[in-house]
Write a structure and sequence with these properties.
The chain has no helices and eleven strands. The radius of gyration is 13 Å and the shape is globular. It starts with a strand and ends with a strand. The relative contact order is 0.32.
Length: 124
Amino acid sequence: EVQLVESGGGLVQAGGSLRLSCAASGFTFDDYTIGWFRQAPGKEREGVSCISSSDGTTYYRDSVKGRFTISSDNAKNTVYLQMNSLKPEDTAVYYCAVDVGGSNWLISSLYDYWGQGTQVTVSS
């Protein structure tokens, strides 16, 4: 059974940092993409960043470029999202998900398995 478990969310002041973790288990796909998405109250889910398992290629939405960094530790089957210079508009529930097709696109419909999410709240 594929499982994705997020952790690391919390409350932080604007300008602060958080590191989210996504622990993955239960799959042995050869080429896949892990993505981070977020959903704020009353808004649609949006892609934040993703990383390819095959070559480590990363992608970021424009609003987080230069502030967020995605990385993976294959030995621990864990993907991280380091979030610096946080802004109130980053407040959302953050989800990690896996695209078993390895598209490396931030399109939520391409992702097959999802975690439960972790809340990130940035106060002004």
